[in-house]
Amino acid sequence: MTQYFTHRTLGLLFATAIALGAFEAYAQKTGSKTPTSQEEPSTQILSDTLHYDDVKRESTFTGNVVMTRGLMTLNSDKLVLNEDAEGFQFGVATVAPGKRVFIRQDRPENFEVIEGIGQVGEYNGKDETFDLIGQAVVTRFICGKKFDNVSGQKVRYYQKTDTYEAYSGPDSVNPGGRVRSVAQPRARAEAAVAECKARQGTAPAPAPTR
After folding, report:
1. 50 to each of 25, 55, 62, 125, 209, how far by Cα in Å?
2. pLDDT digit string (tens) for 58-104?
3. Which segments constitute the Organic solvent tolerance-like N-terminal domain (predicted)?
């Protein structure tokens, strides 16, 4: 079973996490001179080891990998970034059994935090898709509280159309391997933001605990 839906806020998480991060990480290793806006945040990747293969045009980060770009963070045990002969970028983030790839995007202007987890994270620059695979869950927090949620065996985001597909399967976190989506009405979300602003002034929302 496949469930189709659209949600702009979740798109910001996926697009930022891999599409931009993968390219910049590769560019840093190869010395690419691709111009970027001064306002764009830099990408930093921390890991225990880094192996770069110039022939394969591939960077492999292993051990406690933390990729940060602006207010986006990705955590995994291994991150492989590469570019094909046509110039398309690809990325795969993996973890040890029992752990989850973790992606977080802070949106303090809206008092929001978007978090995604899965056993594997894959980015395909040619198709412009990002997948969270295996017990995939994406959650939106407003003012530190859980608000919207979608889960399944896989959640796929299409950059070109800003749309999603959530797939059922045996590796779903839900009973019977089903897809589950909980979306609050826009009016309720706006009310939650207004309440948070009134309570905290202009300060950003507190970070939800993992």
Report:
1. 12, 16, 7, 22, 29
2. 999 999 999 988 888 999 999 999 989 898 889 999 999 999 999 99
3. 44-162
Give the angle subtended at the CA of 67 by the CAs of 64 and 70, to the nearest 5°.
145
End-to-end Cα separation, the chain, in angstroms:
29
Q: How far apart are CA 172 and CA 133, in angstroms?
A: 9
Longest dimension (CA), the chain: 56
